[in-house]
Amino acid sequence: MIRTFRNAFTRRAVLLGGVVVAMGVAGLTQVNAQDTTRLVIGTTADVVNFNPLVGNSRSDVWVTNLMYPRLMQMTAAGSKDPYVATDWGYSEDGKSAWLEIRNDLTWSDDTPFTADDIVFTITAIVTEKIGVTAGLVPAFVSAKAVSPTRVEFELSRPDSAFLSNIGFWMPIVPKHAFPEIGSVASFANDSNWVSAGPFQLTTVEVGQRYVLEASDNYPLVEAGRATIDEVEFRVFPDVNAQALALRAGDLDVIANALPAPIARTLQGQPGITVEKAPSLGWSHVLYNMKREQLANVLVRRALAHSVDYAAIRAIAMQGLAETTNSSVISPVLSYWADPTITEYTFDPAKAKELLTEAGYVDANGDGFFDDLDLSLLYEQSAADVANWAQIMKDSAAQSGIKISLVGLERNTYLARGREKDFDIYAGNWAVMEEPAAYLGLAYRTDGFINYASISDPQLEAYIDEAQAATTPEAVKVPVQAAAKLIHDQVYDNVLYYQTFQFAFNSDRWEGLVMQPSDLLSLVNPLSLASVKPKD
Amino acid sequence: MTNNTPEAVQPSAAAGQLAPADLTPARRTWRAFRANGLGMGSAIVILIMIAIAIAAPLLAQFPSGYGIDILMPPSPQHPFGTDDLGRDVLAQVIWGTRISMIIGFAASVLAIIIGVALGVLAAYARRLDGAISMLVDVCLALPVLPLMILVAALVGPSVTTLVLVIALFSWPEVTRIVRSQALSVTRLPYVDAARTIGGSHIWIMTRHLLPAVAPIIVVSVVLTASRAVLSEAGLSFLGLGDPESWSWGKILFNAQRSGALTVAWWCTLFPSLAILLLVVSSTLVSIAYNDARNPKTREN
């Protein structure tokens, strides 16, 4: 009896197993059938924050960019084109600003996208001091929706960069789906998303994938909606694994910028295209002005002359970097850049002269100046920075400057930077496209990212003048004067701006639109709304 | 009994053919160990690695700076190839041997000191046994790798940090093994006798218990050292290694970070082989030593 039962049970189990396997195969077939309209993008990190006003990792931005639109679109030269905003301007006295938006955009729950959403977003950001954007709009006083498509802003003083700053840096969130002002920064926004981008997040599998479905209404592209049905961000352990998956056909786009060795290998692969995009930011070292040695401009100049810039760009960056002429205004920003500024020379003899002039001696004859042991803080996992940090240490030794490397994991590194707990800080700024705005952020005494504790009244006066000017011509003069002062005083030592490389499967896909910087690159909303399968 | 008399031993000793029972335990163990080909081969590998670690400055220049030959495959000029900054991978492996061995040895010694002290104490002082055993159980139940990562990240990467972190998470296993071995010894009559004649606790523990667990300690030193090397490689591979020095894990981390992992096989093969050789050799030496000192396996 037992045996009969067992046999019957076994038969049923086998049958059930067969059905399950068949269903699985059917499921796989279904997924394969959908592959033509699902674009798979590789990323190396999970989305940490789904609130677009708070999230600042690359994965956060890539995913939330597809759901919460920005008002303007970045051009290759860093200027802004109309996008959701169609027109904008300032009053004659510069103390008020306005912008007009499209009238055909709706949120995914069919609520119209209106000027009220913009007023809500900027008021929340300023009231709760959320993220970098809050630091970019110091002149903001209030905003008013005078019609469903027009917003007017009151400013405490003229600010020439105000509109372009909110235009690019402020994703708009739905007033009706977010909590009241005061609780916006703490809002997790991790379910029941209401979005107005080309895609809407539907599936989150932490450590695995994030799937977004195309929205039915996205009038910012010609077709009125994205061409493809789904976008999947798939999480990989690192870029090496992404490259292998791309070669194997399991991945369509690598969102992360490629290290040079991998880009070189992928370039030769059939069906894979590697495209370049300029960075709108730069890589640099900051000298902590709170440290006694580094407060001396002679020491900072000696350090600037102790960097082998050519080796850094040729070896560490393998040629994928260009000089900014040691200026905080990169030549990519062609309108603003000052062609008279030249790069610091790598000149150990001159560096030694400067240090001797500053009163340093090598009494014990060990080849290093006494009392000048400096540490260089950098993020251990950033390959480029880690490589040039080593080169910087070695070239500084030629000038008699001892530098010890402090490579830390990302969060500890960021915390040490914010707490100004470093001698020399090595890092990158991803997007620095509006000089009048970022000079204030990085070099004002109370600047949001003034990690080096720079405090120079003359520099602040130039920044004030640039921000108060209402025409580009009037902004350019103080902006260039500020850049020259920063160069002469070595408040910041910019080493290069990078050329990023990104790869995608060009056998299967066409229509991707490259935008500058690794925040936008191939995975910007316009690109993913325009991409289509190749016939 | 007659075999133990000097007269009986002398003739065969002169001929170099002492019967196993005629030798001291140490010589019997050595003879058995020597007969084990795998054990001897592994010991030679470890000795070579120690020699490389000591002689590193004579064998290769410390890998620093940069070169123009980026990611070049093995060649007569660079037998192990070059990395993404044009540095010689052979020099990195040689200097990596030094740091990996130092960390392995130092962490192992520290873990052994803590582990043996607590293990012997737990076995001898019954009142402390419960507390120490519970502490060991709790420590063994902890997720070691995430905790190591956390501590190393918070304290900051350096060789000292790595040694301390690895040692602090390696001693519980040693304690457990030593305690169980020492427990069986504390019940033996000669320990009672030592107590009866008025021997102090410290004297009994150091003169009677410690020698009895010495073989276990030798095995533990080797195994803990190899595990420490693995832990160091793991932490360095995760970017928590000392940026100022070279270790095998750091070479692997550099290859992964720079994107050379799938492009330049030589950047990963040689440090991986070094780790594999050390870990396998340590394990084989431990097994061979354990077999050699155990009369049952020795006779077999």
TrEMBL record, chain A:
<dbReference type="GO" id="GO:0015833">
    <property type="term" value="P:peptide transport"/>
</dbReference>
<dbReference type="GO" id="GO:1904680">
    <property type="term" value="F:peptide transmembrane transporter activity"/>
</dbReference>
<dbReference type="GO" id="GO:0030288">
    <property type="term" value="C:outer membrane-bounded periplasmic space"/>
</dbReference>
<keyword id="KW-0813">Transport</keyword>
<dbReference type="InterPro" id="IPR000914">
    <property type="entry name" value="SBP_5_dom"/>
</dbReference>
<protein>
    <submittedName>
        <fullName>Peptide ABC transporter substrate-binding protein</fullName>
    </submittedName>
</protein>
<dbReference type="InterPro" id="IPR030678">
    <property type="entry name" value="Peptide/Ni-bd"/>
</dbReference>
<dbReference type="Pfam" id="PF00496">
    <property type="entry name" value="SBP_bac_5"/>
</dbReference>
<comment type="similarity">
    <text>Belongs to the bacterial solute-binding protein 5 family.</text>
</comment>
<dbReference type="GO" id="GO:0043190">
    <property type="term" value="C:ATP-binding cassette (ABC) transporter complex"/>
</dbReference>
<keyword id="KW-0732">Signal</keyword>
<dbReference type="InterPro" id="IPR039424">
    <property type="entry name" value="SBP_5"/>
</dbReference>
<feature type="domain" description="Solute-binding protein family 5">
    <location>
        <begin position="82"/>
        <end position="443"/>
    </location>
</feature>
